[in-house]
Amino acid sequence: MPSRVKYLLRRSGILLLALLPALFPSSLAQAQDGGIRLRTVVIDAGHGGHDPGAISKSSKMSEKQINLDLALKLGARIEKELPDVKVIYTRKTDRFVELAERGNIANRNHADLFISIHVNSARSTAASGTETFVMGTDKSQSNMEVCKRENSVILLEDDYSTTYEGFDPNNPESYIIFNLMQNAHFEQSIAFAALIQQQFVKNGPIRKSRGIRQAPLMVLWRTTMPSVLVEVGFLSNANDRTTLNNAANRQKIADDIFRAFSTFKQQYDSDAVIEIDESMLSPTEPVDEQAAIAGPHYEIQILATSKKLKNGSAELKGVTQYQCRLINGMYKYSVGNFPTREAALARLPEIRKKFSGAFVIAVE
Ligand SMILES: [Zn+2]
User: Which residues contact 24 (CB under 8 A, 6 or more apart)?
Assistant: First the structure.
């Protein structure tokens, strides 16, 4: 028997509610009208318009299309089978919506639940499976990769530095602000995330679960209700990609999320205790993105020498994780593994503190 953790719905958040009432208008409204029920859900199809999200290798499939299809399928089932629930979509067509606006839509409509739907991607084509994120500050590196990718969408917005108060998705220091904002709806969000992952494992066309994870995701940052971000599989993985390319499979995924929603609503409405299998809480197989250096990417060259350096030699200044390549008779040493030049450039100043001549290189 796996050990179980119990989460009492709607118990959390009371302390933060008292401290920051302006940030939690929907919770206050609920408290005032007595009977608490899940009435409004916002379904957020990630990306859209000039932001395609992840793209398959052949460029034939884009994340934005899959997200929208899943969002519409999920919404249609809720509308049909749970007519007392109001379904609001952040987009119903292929259009760009700013990250902050997605949460604002939920807040303005006093939604009781926010579901953001995404497709994953990783440099390692071996990475596969589903995972559901809640807002939090887990320190794991692979979560950071998802964060950078999902949050860097704001760089496509016109006035992002004003909207997000100087937040830079590629700068780890920017994420410190999230530490101050542990989400008031953390427990409900975890409970809902667990229900989704349980459905995926039991019924899903993609049964491999990477678990429930915490990450500082901008789209979940300011929502004032339980909120999750579902990554339904990896576009970068051949099996997941084939599965996601099939409409019947996408219907199954939408059905899984629907069943999780339906159970969550029942428990939420009756103020029940949701039991969560503790094994769902810790990711079983974190992807070591740094270990998988394959495909075109960017690195930061720190040194070039005519003789090969020994591990721990003074020239390496304590750096132990590096790549060394022999090119035209010179040993070239580089660090990092960045998906974009921008991401590498963001790290460059830090590296230059030790290696003043460091520069970004493209690696095929
Ligand atoms: Zn995405």
Answer: 13, 16, 17, 184, 224
